[in-house]
Amino acid sequence: MKNFKIAEPKSIEQVSGLLSKGGEKVSLMAGGTDMLSEIKEGVAEPDLVVDLSAMKELPFIRKNRDGMHIGAMTTLADLASDPAIRSDYPGLYEAALSVGTPQLRNVGTVGGNLCQRPRCWYYRDAKFLCRKKGGSQCFATRGRNKYHAIFGGGICHIVYPSDLAPMLIALDAKVVVVAPGGEKVLPLSEFYTLPSKNVRRENILNPNEFLREIRIPPPKKGERSTYMKLKERGTWDFALVSAAVKATAGGNSFNDVKIVLGGVAPIPWRLEKVEQGVMKKKLSESMIKETAGAALQEARPMEENRYKVALVEALLVRSLLSIA
Amino acid sequence: MKEHEIVDDLNLAYLEEARGKKAQGKDVPAEAGEDFKLIGQPTARIDGRLIVTGRAKFTNDLTLMNMLHAKILRSPFASAEIVSMDLSQAQNLPGVKAVIKLKEGRVKYEGEQVAAVAAISEKTAEEALQLIKVDYKILPHVVRPEKAVEEGAPQIHDSANVEKFNEYSRGDVDKGFAEAEVVLERTYKTAVEIHQTAETHASIAKLDEDRLTVWDSTQAAFSVRDGLARTLGIPTSKVRVIKTYMGGGFGSKLGLNEHTVVAARLAKETGRPVKIVLNRRENSLCVGNRPSTSITIKGGAKKDGTLVCLSMKNYTCGGVGRGDRCSEPLIDIYKCPNVKVEEYTVYTNTGASRPTRAPGHVQGTFALEGFLDELADELGLDPLELRRKNYSSANQGETGIPYSSKGLNKCYELGAAKIGWERRNKKPGEGGGKIRRGLGVASQIWWGAGVPGTLADIKIHRDGSVEVICGTQDIGCGTRTYIATIAAETLGLKPEDIAVKIGDTVYPWAPSSGGSQTTPSVAPAVRDAALKAAERLKQLVSTTLNIPASRIVLAGKKLFDKENPDVSVTFQDAAKELRREAVFHGERSDLPAGFAYNSFGAHFAEVEVDTETGQIRVAKVVAVHDVGRVINRLTAESQVVGGITQGVSTALFEERLIDDNTGQMVNPNLQGYKISTSMDIPEIVPIFVDLIDPRINNLGTKGLGEPPRIPISAAVANAVYNAIGIHLREIPMTPDKVLKALQGKEANS
Ligand SMILES: Cc1cc2nc3c(=O)[nH]c(=O)nc-3n(C[C@H](O)[C@H](O)[C@H](O)COP(=O)(O)OP(=O)(O)OC[C@H]3O[C@@H](n4cnc5c(N)ncnc54)[C@H](O)[C@@H]3O)c2cc1C
Fold first, then answer.
1. ipTM exceeds 0.90, yes or no
2. Model pTM?
3. Across the interface, which of A143, A230, A307 has its CB nearest the CB of B740?
4. Residue B342: active-site member
């Protein structure tokens, strides 16, 4: 581990100032549950760590007319124990509660969860100089790829590990980004980028920008949501595959449905084909399977991760039927 | 079933005889333990508070004056030639006190030690490692045993990559197969498992003149001492090894480790104490692992389930080290006249194996017990019935010497009742639905008779305080507590009245804590010393009280006349009669010849399998063990819970994963190498059959270190088989494998 300086800004302006200084490698730290392990493993070697924990204005959950506003420094534990979140967005409550362990949720934040780095074991180990770290190959392609992507891989087969991201995208959340010149508000679905765009990063943030807040539109009448996560073990495990579903039901079919998968691609993976296929139709197991089967034709599994295709199918059936 | 119970009754008869005598008011030998008040009861750990409040000192907690910190540079490559090594830059870093070369020529696995540094802080030592310049020429490697056996594979050692290391045969298997009415052949595989001790390895070495003192997180203080003396060329008498508290070993701390030698060498080089603590990565790469296996069993039986022949071929891979001998359960546990075994080790460019809690038996039992379940299905028999049908009362499958005691039938009986064995699918996989339930059983055999010659002293001070002194080590199993309990029981005191001094080679000799040896070695030695002390006190008090010594009883911190309890002296006053501090030497006696001494057990597991996601949940495990007399029921149950937790973990999750292309491990950490969490642990019901062995030692107790680890993975796999009708024949049974097997079944049907 390399030595680094640490700064504890108290305002948004100070954060922006520190990120824009240039000349040295800067890392933002929220709860630190993810980034400290990157430093310890020698994967990240910042000169300066900007610790957001003294930012009094960043942890908040506020219900406004235009929906729910959640500050980047809100802990996952606070998110999961907020009664309004639980009643308005049950899927988000489930997603927050599915992250890691109680200890991690007490410290880990919403901003950190959405900006966390991938968990690919090649990326996370300094001894493998992979594309994401500036090398020239993806070791997973012909290596150990049991936990890797079945969609959208190509030059790099990480899966995006966040449990909140798929659910928030399904809920049509927007993200507020602070840039030196001011704020940008954009749909979270446009926040994440595929390796083909920039293999070194997972989102659109420039080094001098950071995520301030998440905004979720108010739930529509009859809106339901759920987050289902398949893990190998009972807790303290990232998703093998997860499914975030939001739908508004009318009669015994969905008027409108959004499905985003976790654990299958370098970004949260939307399944528009399946959304189209199941909308306004009477839901049944066989009908979902049939629709899913068609969409899963596009999957590109490798040697050790073919089983994820079956997991997606099972999860789609279960999640859709659970809120039908 | 009657015929099988003869062996079990052996001990019941012994006990009943004692109980009968007691009922008639006759004297019962102390060994019968009929009057025990503490032994056999649950006793809380005497050091429990210290440990859970963080006050117990582990090796890593110790800091000596002037102490340096050492780090080891390790090969990043699975196979390479060290062309050159330049230490000068590291040597010149301020704060660095010594840099030594540990390797020249060829490195054969990732993590092999190359050089070491001692510096004033861990951080400086780490920095110095970065400054050591090693020029490697990378050589071809092979990390997968299936590839290592192929023609033209890179050769690991001077000899071939495949080497036969064990053979066994009795009867005539060919004749057996000719007689058999049903023959089955199956291959079972187990992955490489890492000893994930909570506390990683740590040593501190200190040299005073020519005397070396080493603090080590070890299961084997005496063997570390002897190993250091041998390796460093100094007399054993000048080496002392101290072991304080430790957080697990499971075999990876069973004997001298390379890094401990490095610490001693650096202490010599610098003239200062040197501490070395390994990290999780090193723990994963270079202090041992459980060898993988691929075991093929071919067996034949009569239609009624009588086994007529078993043959086994084992290909086991322990990296640059040896594979495990896995045939013992197959050779021993079931009655079978014709047996043939061949075992081969396969070498690869990976870290060397090390004994891992029940080496060989875990893998061998997984194969054998899986095979029996598949055979039972083929025969249309209840798997438990098949096991009872081939029950043996003598070892080597009834062809050897009789077991001194064997409570396995009792284990079957109690376990089947407790789990509700009749609820199993009569035909594997016959239940419907997405979530399938199943029950499975597996039997266990292990040694664990203890080591004759183990020594323990009891010292009684003139103020009546008592010490037990023994060089054994408490590796987390509660050794301190039962030592106090046995001394207290025998001397009529309370466990907290006894000061227990262990974990130091200046104390009387005790064996390594591995192989379930500690309790059956140490407990009898302590008991022996305590009985001698009690006898002496009785003699002294008999004069004072003017009654025969034989009438004196020690209890309630008093010595009194059992016929007239008011006639008494306090233990403290009795101790004064000793006149000076007195030491009583205890020794674990010899094992009577002509008998086999083994422990037995049976695990019953209940699982749920999600046939759409491949997820397995172990719902319940009933674990019934025959370990002779239980000394401390609380820590014995903890031992069972620990074994099952580990076994469920390897059945479902644990696997060392290596990237074939680079030869490097991808999960040398606890994120990628998954161990079970509290959410994965089933309801566990430990049961002991309490059959006191009449000969094994003065307490009739057998070891319990490995037994609960042995049958559990097999029982879980058999339960999965019962649930879905497919035996996966491979652990860990992760969702990808379960789904693949289910899809294969669908395709076939
Ligand atoms: C053992 C373990 C298990 C885990 N399991 C899960 C799991 O099951 N599901 C899951 O989703 N995650 C999991 N995580 C990942 C992660 O640690 C948590 O999800 C947590 O929410 C991260 O938040 P943090 O505040 O600690 O982030 P940090 O570690 O502080 O930051 C993470 C990254 O985000 C950046 N960052 C932080 N805040 C901002 C911001 N406001 N703007 C821009 N960039 C920012 C940091 O620079 C850093 O690169 C796990 C982590 C560990 C160590």
1. yes
2. 0.96
3. A307
4. no
